[in-house]
Amino acid sequence: MAKSIFTTSHKMRILKNFIYTAAVTLCFLSCVGQKANAGQLYNGWNYSIDAFDDGSGGAVYDIKGIAIKESGDKVYVALTGGMPLNGTMHDSVHIGWGDLFFNFSGQNFQTASQTGQLFAVKFADYDGSLSTGVYQKVTAKSVTAEHDGYTSLKAYYNAGFNKSNTQGTDLATLQQVYNYYYPTAIAQNPTTNNTPILNVIASGTKVGNISLLGANELTTAGLDFGHFSAAGSQTIGFAFDKASIGTGSYIASLYLECGNDGVALKGEIKSTPEPTATAGLVIFTVGFGAVQIRKRQKGVLA
Ligand SMILES: [Ca+2]
Ligand SMILES: [Ca+2]
After folding, report:
1. Ligand 2 center to 111 CA (angstroms)
2. Per mean pLDDT, which range of 62-71, 143-152, 207-216, 287-296 is the poorest?
3. Distance from the CA of 225 to the center of ligand 1, in angstroms?
4. Under a CB-based contact definition with an 8 Å cutoff, are residues 174 and 164 in contact?
C-alpha cells in the first residue's frame, strides 16, 4: 500500500488548524447574527424602547416599548404603554391598536406595502372586518382619519411630538423615521400631503393564528420592560408560529389607530438550520476525526 506523504503529527497539525478555523467561523457567524439584531438584547428578548413623552393625548396614547423573542418554533411579541388591548373611547370614537407589520423586504415601508411584500399580525379585532392572526402578502392603509387622529406623520410631528427615540431606539430620529416609511423623494421632502400613517392591514392572506399571552406567561418567558424602566400600565403579549412569517432581518412597526404614537424594532428571524448549528456540526465532525486518529495512534483501529 502506498504510504501517505503526511505523518501522524502532520495530520494532527492539520486537524488542529481546521478546528481553529471552524471555531473562528463559529464566532464570526455568531457575531454577524448579533449585529443583525439591532435592538437591545436582554434575557432573550430584543427590545426597542420608545420615547415616553410622544403620545399625543396623554399617557393612554403613549407607547413605551416593544420586545420580540424567538423561541423554538414560536415568535413572542410584547408591547407596553398606556393603551389597553381593547382600546379606549375618545369623544365617542373608539381608539385602539393598529396592526403590527414585519418588513423583511429591505424596501421602505410604503414601497413594500404597495408591492404586497409585508407580513402583519392583527392582535386586536375591533370591528370584525378582519380576524386576528398572521397575514402575508400584505398591503397597508391608514385609518387615522376615522379614529380622531393625525392625517399625516408630518402633522403629528408639526404638533410637537418629535422626541428623542421617536419610534424607539432603532428609529430614533425624525429623518430615520421618514427614511424608513417613505421612498427617498418623500423622505427628503415630507409634507402633510405625502406622509400617510399606514397603520392597519388593507389586504393580505391569513396564514396563521395567534395566542394571547398573560402577564404570568410573559414573565415566565423572561420579559422584563422594568429593566429599561419602561413598564407601562398596560402590557400586551401574543405568540405565533415562526413558520407563518418570513426569515432574515426585519423591521417591525406599529402605530395606534389614531397615529398618536408609533414604535419600531429591528430584528432577525433565523432560518433553519441555523448557521451556528451548521458550524457546530463541522466542529463535531472534525472532533470525531481527531478521535479516530488518536485511536489509530494507540493501535485501537487498523
Ligand atoms: Ca411613546
Ligand atoms: Ca413613538
Report:
1. 22
2. 287-296
3. 14
4. no
